[in-house]
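[step 3/7] inverse_fold.run input=structure_tokens len=105
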């Protein structure tokens, strides 16, 4: 998935903050609050785990898209931009995972 589609999706998710929850799934998520959004992220993550265990590539793709979508809803809800995530990934790029984990302590 390219950064452009992520940015466009986030723009739409931002617009949905002001939408009527009766007419928008995303607006309904926002209206139900952080705990509900987190529950959806957890559900999608669990479904991806099951798909990964099953090994069906199409199911893995579908569930990953669902998880990414709900993660983006959470980010927008919390006023975190994709650019902030991209910057963090870029900061970590080329760094050993072991070194990065050790730097958090």
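[step 3/7] decode complete -> sequence:
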């Amino acid at each position: 998935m390219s950064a452009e589609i992520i940015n466009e999706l986030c723009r739409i998710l931002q617009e949905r903050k002001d939408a009527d929850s009766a007419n928008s799934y995303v607006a309904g998520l926002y209206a139900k609050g952080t705990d509900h959004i987190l529950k959806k992220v957890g559900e999608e993550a669990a479904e991806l785990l099951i798909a990964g265990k099953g090994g069906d590539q199409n199911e893995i793709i579908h569930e990953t898209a669902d998880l990414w979508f709900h993660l983006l809803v959470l980010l927008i809800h919390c006023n975190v931009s994709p650019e902030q995530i991209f910057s963090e990934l870029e900061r970590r790029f080329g760094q050993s995972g072991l070194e990065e984990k050790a730097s958090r302590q």
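[step 4/7] annotate
The chain has six helices and no strands.
The helical segments are 3-15, 25-32, 34-54, 57-77, 82-92, 97-103.
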